[in-house]
Amino acid sequence: MGVLDNKIALVTGASRGIGKAIAERLARDGALVAVHYASNSEAAEKTVAGIVESGGSAFAVQAELGVPGDVDTLFDRLRAGLAEHTDRYELDILVNNAGEQTAAGLAPEDITPEAFDRLFAVNAKAPLFITQRALTIVPEGGRIINISSGLTRFAVPEQLAYSMTKGALEQITLHYARHLAPRGITINTVAPGITDNGSPVFSIPEAREQMGRLSAFKRVGTAEEIAGVVAFLAGPDGGWTTGAFIDATGGTLLG
Ligand code: NDP
Q1: What are the record keywords, sorted (predicted)?
Q2: Domain segments of the chain: what residues?
Q3: Is 8-254 a CATH 3.40.50.720 domain?
Q4: Closest residue (by CA) to atom 26 of ligand 1?
Q5: Which ipTM was obtained for this model?
Q6: Which residues line ligand 1 (CB under 6 A)?
Q7: Dihedral sign, CA of 167, 135, 61, 17?
């Protein structure tokens, strides 16, 4: 018996990185997990196969976010996927994890309106409208978790535009928390610090050590550590926490 038995979860951006670890953890806890991705179908199918091999239930859902019609596509495909696995068209847990970030960032003077619009479309607008649509099928007791970043509390000039999108995402948590409390639905923000998402840079020892220095523990975080925080919020022990900003940066914000 898992604490999330009979629950249905959608994790956006779950083909790789932090989202993959969240999908795996929620599935291990018993949920049927929709593994959303943009274009990397091979990675998404691998995530699903891993979950199924471990005795869990999952299926992949493709939808590029940040383009017109994205939310319709996502929910049409979610509905089709759920129909193959359950007779419920409901969502107990939504994790808004998918996000984009330019690898080296953008110096403040190099931010263009186009880059700004794209970042906002994927990282802020899409989660807002996914949340709005999801709420038509989230029952009482539902859980919504938004994956932000410690960068809303930590100045890195090259991440100004990205951090603005995450600041906007955090507003979804704050204002919806009040709006959703009468329905018994919680919504919270989890803010990772630098977290190994499987990108090649994490295999370079010098780069890894340099990134790790920001954390009080002097190492980068693991995707599983972020998934553990999400699992708490999604599970039965998370029911009295809403509207919260949860620092999952390994003490980076301690200064
Ligand atoms: P990855 O780059 O490893 O994975 C991104 C995921 O999001 C993939 O599944 C990708 O799908 C999907 N995705 C990206 N863009 C889109 C899009 N336009 N439409 C739909 N899906 C999309 O990300 P991380 O694991 O590093 O990050 C996950 C979240 O955590 C993000 O919101 C990020 O901002 C945040 N974060 C990450 C930190 C880190 O150090 N890793 C630190 C702080 C916050 P596909 O595989 O198909 O491309």
Answers
A1: Oxidoreductase
A2: 8-254
A3: yes
A4: 197
A5: 0.99
A6: 13-19, 37-40, 43, 64-66, 97-101, 122, 147, 149, 192, 194-195, 197
A7: positive
